Amino acid sequence: MSDSYILITGATVISMDISNGETLNCDILIENETIKAVGRDLSLPSDGKVVTIDAKNCIVTPGFVNGHHHMWQHLLRGLTVDWSLFGYSCHLRSVYGSLYTPDDVYFANYAAALSLLNNGITTVLDHCHVINSPAHADMAVKGLKDAAIRGTFCYGFYQNPIVPGDLASTAMDPFDQAARVDDARRVRQEHFSSNDAGSALLTFGVALNEPPMQPKEKNIEELVIARKLGARLATQFSDAKLMGPDIVFSHGAWMTDSELAAVRSSRAGIVSTPDTELQMGMGTPIAWKAADLGCRTCLGLDITSNHGNDFMAQMRLALQTQRAREHDQTVQRDVRRKAADVLRMATLGGAEVMQMESLIGSIVPGKKADLVIFRCDDIDTVPVVDPVGTVVFHAAPGNIDTVIVDGKIVKQNGQLVGVDWHSLHDQIVSRSQRLRDQAGQVDMGESESIFHSLFEKAMEE
Length: 461
Ligand SMILES: [Zn+2]
Description:
One of its GO terms (molecular function) is hydrolase activity, acting on carbon-nitrogen (but not peptide) bonds. InterPro entries: Amidohydro-rel, Metal-dep_hydrolase_composite, Metal_Hydrolase, MTA/SAH_deaminase. This is Amidohydrolase-related domain-containing protein. It holds the Pfam family Amidohydro_1. It comes from Penicillium cinerascens. It is globular and about 65 Å long. The chain starts with a strand and ends with a helix. Helix 5 (about 215-230) links the parallel strand 9 (about 200-205) and strand 10 (about 235). It has helices at about 85-100, 100-120, 135-145, 175-190, 215-230, 255-265, 275-280, 285-290, 310-330, 340-355, 385-395, 420-440, 445-460; strands at about 5-15, 20-30, 35-40, 50-55, 60, 65-70, 120-130, 150-155, 200-205, 235, 245-250, 270, 295-300, 300-305, 370-375, 400-405, 410, 415. Strands 1, 2, 3, 4, 5, 15, 16, 17 and 18 form a 9-stranded mixed beta sheet that branches. A 9-stranded parallel beta sheet has the order 13-12-11-10-9-8-7-6-14. The model has no long low-confidence stretch (mean pLDDT about 95). By secondary structure, the chain is an alpha/beta fold. The protein folds into 2 domains: about 5-60 and about 360-415, Urease, subunit C, domain 1 (Roll); about 65-355, Metal-dependent hydrolases (TIM Barrel, Alpha-Beta Barrel). Zinc ion binds next to strand 6. Zinc ion binds near residues 68 and 127.
């Protein structure tokens, strides 16, 4: 097979590479799935298939990396905008999650991945806690693979109640924890034979049950299992002695300095999800404090039934919240946190948290070609005085003209490529309506008070 090339010409390139910074009027040559060269006046290859993209008036960044997301919730967008963590845990997780069929999971994951790609997010860690049967797991993986997003699918050990809203009904579910472990092993073998991020777009990880909702010994036991299964990443863990670079902590706002020191020395990662943390009472995002202490840190979107997938908005929220916090502490002559700092968290920082920094996160020859091209010649982006500032503060998802993943164009001229939107639209709307109708029939009166006392107890610990 002959090689294929993409030549991007005349762009402003924000490489996120410390030695290169940002370069005006720059070309990028992609060979198959890899960035081959970055520089001025690159010549076209003499053979092979070549696509040329004129990127005059455009800014190119690395693809964004979203370190924590629940793709399955995409069918429920807008449902949780005024909810607290209690409402989310009780209703979304324990009612809606139970109602999902395997096909619901497929369409949710497929649509969520396309939405992320549309927003320039080329890599995601999917924390999938809707695996109600082996078929659910298969369809979750298929949705991500069909959308061709890069990332790690984290098989959730969480057990939704078999009767929606009735936590006690988990005891009647034959798909119990032991069956889940067996199934996770099957999924790892069937869908992720190599589980090598260098050669496969999607890799396998495990989403452990959340530490406050289960005893510490169980949490440790689950991590040992995840490692035996060959999980590339494991999320949600709380014991310093067993930490390692394969662990990704979501949120972590209450971590102490000594816990963060253990995160740093083990090269584990921290993901802040500003929108949900600020809304739902999960504490002030810890990313900046963790980064100051030398931890690998990044951003995530988390609950997609809540806010949109606009990563620039998430960057601004993370940045401005921290600036506000620091202004409250002392009078500052200048703002300490820069737009470039948060752009780094959204790209190379995410790659580091997901242990993929040798593959993605910056625009340098040899890395995978995951790129976002922002067209910056409209009323909202002109003039471009500071390219990093334009991306973080002015660009909207509508400015994202082209997205490339693994050397393939997945969005072009502002449109996703190869997507039958009309039929997908109908699937999303009808499935969302059915889930909401079914959830509306669940009487949560007694269950809600049982859940509330359990939740309060867990939060105290
Ligand atoms: Zn989450």
